[in-house]
Amino acid sequence: MCNITRAKKLLAPVEREGFFRLHLGAEIESLEELADALEVMDDVTFSHHVNKERNDFHPWILDVIQDKKLATVIKTATTKKMMAQKVRRRVGQLQKKLLAYDATDSVTMHNGMKDFLLGLIVGLFIGLVVSILLRGLA
């Protein structure tokens, strides 16, 4: 299970020293950028990084991004399209988790505001009643 803090970390850009460097020099700093890059990457570049001997994206996702789930899923991907779909699906799952949390957080904040206003009104009303009672006794 992936909590909110972990989802944010997995989606966040990595530090510069952790960027994935494509063999022609372009740099990738996040899972979302990887998905975008895979969708437009030429076959020569993809084959340089993913072939029978290696899958350069696997250790980057495992060690730098630290997403074991995605690393396992893409380890056997052999085409750009397949890998892009798997990365895009994972990004979507993580973003959905964050959106669900934001919606829940918004409802909680809204309910907290209602409770605060109700408490304020009740407090003012009680203060007014006590004030009137004290004036009547004086």
Structure summary:
With 138 residues, the protein is mostly helical. 72% of the residues lie in helices and 3% in strands.
- Oligomeric form: single chain
Strand order of the largest sheet: 1-2
State the major sheet: 2 strands, antiparallel
Radius of gyration: 26 Å
Please state the structural category. mainly alpha
Distance between the termini: 65 Å
What percent of the residues sit in helical stretches (DSSP H or I)?
over 70%
Runs in which pLDDT lies below 50 for 5 or more consecutive residues are none
Secondary-structure element order, as H and E? HEEHHHHH
Beta-strand proportion: under 5%
What is the strand tally? 2
Number of domains: 1
Shape: rod-shaped
Mean pLDDT rating: 88
Helix tally equals 6
Structure in words:
- The protein is mainly α.
- The chain has one domain.
- Helices cover 72% and strands 3% of the residues.
- The protein has 6 helices and 2 strands.
- The chain has helices at 4-11, 31-40, 43-49, 57-65, 68-74, 80-137, and strands at residues 20-21, 27-28.
- The protein has a two-stranded antiparallel ribbon with strand order 1-2.
- A hairpin with a 5-residue loop joins strand 1 and strand 2.
- Helix 1 (4-11) crosses helix 6.
- The relative contact order is 0.10.
List the helices and strands and how they pair.
Layout: H1 4-11, E1 20-21, E2 27-28, H2 31-40, H3 43-49, H4 57-65, H5 68-74, H6 80-137
Antiparallel strand pairs: 1-2
Helix pairs in contact: 1-6, 2-6, 4-5
